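Appendix B, Record 12. Input sequence as logged:
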Amino acid sequence: MYAPHTVTLYYNGEEQDFEPVTEITVLHGVFYDATKAANVTKSGLDGADAVNLYIPFDVKAVDGHTGKLRQYVSPKEFEAAEDKSDIWTLGIGPEFFFVKGEIVADLDFQQMNAKYDNVHRITKVCENDFGSLNMRHWVVGGA
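Logged structural output:
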């Protein structure tokens, strides 16, 4: 899979003691496909996905602050984990968003969107777990 781009994945959530937490994971080797005009034209929906992000299962995922490698886990495993420093996941909801490029800043979605271009909330996650090992990937929609 041709994957020349880098994106930074954000999770803004709460710890079990309701303290805010931001997990920042940099994904190296993804394909960022901005297709809003085509989606709006085809579907007639202004709210159509602005971006499709193709993430190979073997993507290099690192902690945004330390550069330490991170391992993918399912959303339920991620939520249940007390220590999220070595893991990452893909989820849908206001706490999950991504930005094109390697941009590490402890900001929420609105602050990031005001400061940077190409900031997207995750609107869909499709797991394409078939084919040869180098073709398995997630398709993540962003708006």
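Strands lie at 5-14, 20-34, 51-56, 60-63, 71-72, 87-88, 96-100, 119-128, 137-142.
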